[in-house]
Write a structure and sequence with these properties.
The protein is of the alpha/beta class. The chain has two domains: 90 residues, STAS domain (Transcription Regulator spoIIAA, 2-Layer Sandwich), CATH 3.30.750.24; 231 residues, no CATH class. Helices cover 71% and strands 7% of the residues. The protein contains twelve helices and five strands. Strands 1, 2, 3, 4 and 5 form a five-stranded mixed β-sheet that branches. It is elongated and about 115 Å long.
C-alpha cells in the first residue's frame, strides 16, 4: 500500500540524523523534500537513514540528494543496497558533463550528404554488377545442365505474376486507350481531323502505353513481391540455411523469377495492347461515330505491324529489369523489419525509374533507326 513520504530528525552521538519513511516517489513525495531542506538549514554535518523507506524512484532520489546537498557525506548515508545503487546512479548523472551543443552547419551537412550519396551510388553500382555476374554464371550453368532448372516455382511465379495480373492490366490499359481516344477526338476536332485519332490510339497504345503500363503495374506487384519474399527469407536466415545445405539461392530463388517474368510480360503486353485498342475503339465509336470495322481497317493500313513489334521488343528488357531489381533488393535485406520495408520501397521506386529510363532509351534508338 502506498504511503506518503516523510522524515523525522533525531539527535545522535554522530549528530542530527534524518530518518526517512514512506514512499519517495514522484507521486507520493509531495513537499517532503522541501521540508527536509528547511529542517537541515544551518546543519553542516548530518546522517541520513533510508532503511525505513518503502519505494524510491529517480525523482525521489534526486529530491533527497538536492535536499541534503553539501550537508551529508556519502559515507553518512545508510540505505539498503537497492536504494544506495539508485542514489549513486542519480549522483553520477548530476555530476556528468553536459552534452555539447551541436550547431547546424548547412554547407557542411549538404556536402556530407552529397558525399554519402555519391558513395552510395558507387556501392549500389558495384553490388549490381556483382549480382549480375552471379546471375550470369547461374544462367550459363543452367544452360549447360538444363536439369538444374526448377520449373515448378518458375511456372508458379509466372502464374502469380501473369494470370493474376490480367484483370488489372486489362482495366488499366482499357481506360488509357479510352483517354487517348478522348484527347484525340477533342484536340483533332479543331482541325477537322478527328479520323486521325485512330492512328494516335494505335501508335500510342502499341508502341508505348501498353508495355509501359504493364511494366509499371508489374513493378508494383512483382518487384515488391520478390523483394518482400526473398527479404523475409533473408531475415529468417533461410537463405543462409540454403547455402549451408549446398543450394545456390540464385539458382533456387532468383532464376525462376527471371524466367517467370520473361514468360509473363510479353503475354501481358499483348493483352494490354488489345485492351487499349478496345478502349480507343469504343470511344471513337461513341464520340466520333467511327465504326469498328473502319477503325480496325485504319489500324491495319496506317499503324501497321512495325509499331506492334516495337512495343513487344521492350517486353523482355522490362522483364529482366523488374525481376533483377526486385530480387537484388530482396537479397540486400538485413535482419530487421525496417530494412525490409526500405528495400521493398526501393524495389518499386527503382523499377519504375528504370522502366521510364529504358523506354526513353528505346525511343531514342528507334528514332535514330527511323523506325
Amino acid at each position: 500500500m502506498d504511503s506518503p513520504a516523510d522524515f523525522t530528525i533525531t539527535q545522535t552521538d554522530a549528530g542530527p540524523t534524518a530518518v526517512m519513511t514512506g514512499d519517495w516517489t514522484a507521486v507520493e513525495m509531495g513537499s517532503a523534500a522541501d521540508r527536509l531542506n528547511e529542517a537541515l538549514q544551518g546543519v553542516t554535518s548530518a546522517q541520513l537513514d533510508l532503511s525505513g523507506i518503502g519505494r524510491c524512484d529517480t525523482a525521489g532520489a534526486f529530491a533527497i540528494l538536492r535536499a541534503v546537498e553539501g550537508r551529508v557525506p556519502h559515507e553518512a548515508i545508510h540505505a539498503p543496497r537497492r536504494t544506495a545503487r539508485l542514489l549513486e546512479l542519480v549522483a553520477r548523472a548530476l555530476t556528468a558533463a553536459p552534452v555539447p551543443e551541436v550547431r547546424n552547419q548547412p554547407l557542411t551537412d549538404l556536402l556530407e550528404r552529397l558525399g554519402r550519396g555519391l558513395v552510395g551510388v558507387g556501392v549500389e553500382a558495384y553490388e549490381t554488377m556483382a549480382f549480375t555476374g552471379h546471375l550470369l554464371i547461374v544462367i550459363a550453368r543452367t544452360m549447360a545442365f538444363p536439369r538444374r532448372m526448377r520449373w515448378a516455382p518458375t511456372f508458379n511465379i509466372a502464374e502469380r505474376a501473369g494470370l493474376d495480373a490480367i484483370p488489372i492490366v486489362i482495366v488499366t490499359t482499357f481506360f488509357i486507350g479510352a483517354v487517348i481516344g478522348f484527347l484525340g477526338a477533342t484536340e483533332l476536332a479543331q482541325f477537322g481531323a478527328q479520323v486521325f485519332s485512330v492512328e494516335l490510339i494505335g501508335i500510342g497504345v502499341l508502341r508505348e502505353f501498353a508495355i509501359v503500363i504493364t511494366a509499371v503495374l508489374l513493378a508494383g506487384r512483382s518487384a515488391s513481391s520478390f523483394a518482400a519474399e526473398i527479404g523475409a527469407m533473408k531475415m529468417k536466415q533461410e537463405i543462409d540455411a540454403m547455402r549451408i545445405m549446398g543450394a545456390d539461392p540464385f539458382e533456387a530463388l532468383v532464376l525462376p523469377r527471371f524466367i517467370g517474368l520473361l514468360i509473363t510480360i510479353p503475354l501481358l503486353t499483348f493483352v494490354a495492347m488489345l485492351a487499349g485498342i478496345a478502349g480507343g475503339l469504343l470511344v471513337s465509336w461513341w464520340v466520333e461515330d467511327i465504326s469498328p470495322t473502319f477503325f480496325l481497317q485504319r489500324i491495319v493500313d496506317n499503324v501497321g505491324v512495325v509499331n506492334f513489334w516495337v512495343g513487344m521488343s521492350k517486353a523482355p528488357v522490362m522483364a529482366l529489369v523488374i525481376a533483377g531489381i526486385g530480387c537484388r533488393q530482396g537479397m540486400e535485406v538485413g535482419g530487421d523489419v525496417d530494412s525490409l520495408g526500405r528495400r521493398v520501397t526501393a524495389a518499386v521506386v527503382h523499377a519504375i525509374f528504370a522502366i521510364i529510363m529504358i523506354d526513353a532509351v528505346f525511343a531514342l534508338i528507334y528514332m535514330k533507326l527511323n523506325i
